[in-house]
Amino acid sequence: MHDPRLTPARPDLAAKYLEGTVKAARYVTGEEFCVGEAVADLREGPSSGAMVATQALKGERVTIYDRNGEGFAWGQLNDDGYVGWIADAALVKSATAPTHKVTALRTFAFPGPSIKLPPVATLPMGARIEVSGEDGTFAVTNEGLHLPLRHVGSLDAMETDFVSVAERFVGTPYLWGGKSSLGIDCSGLVQVSLNAAGTGCPRDSDMQRDGLGRALDAAEAKRLQRSDLIFWKGHVAIVRDADTMVHANAHHMATVIENTKEAIARIKAAGSEVIAIKRL
Question: pLDDT at residue 32 above 90?
Answer without folding.
Answer: yes
